[in-house]
Amino acid sequence: FYEIFSKKRPDNKSCLIVCNTVQRSIDIFNKLKEKKIQPLYYLSTNIVPAFRLDIIQKIKNDLQENKNPVLVSTQVVEAGVDLDFDIGFRDLAPIDSIIQVAGRINRENCKTKTLSPLYIIQFQNKNGDFESSLVYDSLTREQVIKALQNIDEIPENQYLQLVDSYFSDISSKTAFAEARNFFNSMKTLKYDAENKNDCPVSSFKIIKESSWTISVFVELNDEAVIAKEAYNKMLNKDFSKKEFDRKYKKIFNQYIIAIPKKFAGNLEEINEYTENIKLVSNSFWNKFYDIETGFIRNTDINGAYIL
User: Fold this and answer.
1) Cβ(131)–Cβ(48) under 8 Å?
2) Buried b (16+ CB within 10 A) or exposed e, 4-17
3) 37-41, 122-126, 293-297: the lowest-pLDDT one
């Protein structure tokens, strides 16, 4: 990826890089840091929420001062983050996600920025698999590739046409079969069924539960220490849940991240009465948490291909 990055991004341009996986985003950040790219920032759900706003504000300041920062991120930057970069790179994703990232490129529609491209690329893991195939279903990938194939450039005034074409095509495919089956179950009052593939009403969930991640509380500073102590006092009935919710819940949640369970094997529970939150203690947080990239994971640098 660095070869693509260095060829496409001039030194005097700010840049946004959006990856599909946290691990890939960390790998890219570390590679750019190794190459002494500055100013360089990282933002993903691997960072505790308490620190994310501060990172965003630092990037805004650099953008306003024309320091041309580079941000490596994940899908977390696609919505609700008001930043404006000169160019960008996005791993293959659904068209609506690509358009979201495009909205972070020349967001202010500055006329002096005559060329503000978003390059669509494909990252591969060490097994040679495209990482987009690990995040999105095969139909979604096929339809995105079909929409973008044989097109060198899509100007902004053609975005709407691209989106309409993409969703018109994908809605006619089997991607919406499950939704139609649920709707039919509601009409026929089929609440349950032995085969959950029949889509009975009882198996419908707006947000699917994740069985491979676990919540981790990172006790990074005094504020986190106080919030954790308050949480334990609530569990031990030293004061009420209502009091905890009013005084500490918001702060407590600001130090929780979700990570794959395979990385949390050596962590203890935050309290003997709960098994759904692991703890990175204040006494050794720097062994498990990096201030720049968040929770420490295994790294793996591999290839990238521009689409």
Assistant:
1) no
2) ebeebbeeebbbbb
3) 122-126
